[in-house]
Amino acid sequence: MSGGKKYYTVWTGKEPGVYDNWEECRKHIQGFAGAKYKSYPTHDDAQQAFEAGPPQDYYHSRRPKKETAMPPAYRNDTVLPLPPDVTAQAIAVDAACSKNPGPMEYRGIDLRTGAEVFHYGPITGTNNIGEFLAIVHCLALLDKQGDSDTVVYSDSRNALLWVKKRQCATKLQATEQTRQALLLVERAVNWLHTHTIKNRLIKWETDKWGEIPADFGRK
User: Fold this and answer.
1) CB count, 10 Å around CB of 215?
2) Which residues of 185-209 are buried (b: 16+ CB within 10 A; e: fewer)?
3) Cβ neighbours of residue 114 closer than 8 Å, sequence gap 6 or more
4) H-run or E-run covering 8
5) Tens digit of pLDDT for each residue in 86-99?
6) Rounded CA gap, 104 and 86, in Å?
7) Is pTM, for the whole model, over 0.85?
8) Range list of β-strands (E), 28-174
């Protein structure tokens, strides 16, 4: 989960407008086929974008233009408004932490149904640790289910790198409050060293696709 306050422009949704938090924005796009929205760093930027309409590159297509009509901006084969280039058979994971360290929690969301697959916390930790644990939790769950096809999305480059290197380069100091988080990190690293990662790990491109569906909306 990236930091900084964001504002959300909804051009096409249940109620178009500008919203100052992700949860309010999500109410107006979730389950709405063809929803069009984007985040901006300031309210003025979001308002100006709303008045101007969706940008020309809204569809995020990198392919050469063809004579055929452009595809719809978002998928209609799921209850979530997923971009066309996002795999629906996937779980998106994210973490939230109010301080560093502080109360930390993480969760996973099924992109086909919008359902929360798992949720853990809060415990005392850091956002990076939460992002890391969320990925490993998801991988372990899918491995237990014998599912090697489901994709795992995370918006954290650090956490994805830690998982691929099978290590957690956290600088969190060991205290009575952080003991549980560090124990989970130790277990997660051990799992990575004793199991083969069978599922694809993909970086969620927030700049292109908006906030990851597992986002806690606390920016």
Assistant:
1) 23
2) beebbeebeeeebebebeebeeeeb
3) 30, 31, 78, 79, 80, 213
4) strand 7-12
5) 999 999 999 999 88
6) 27
7) no
8) 36-40, 90-97, 102-110, 116-125, 151-154
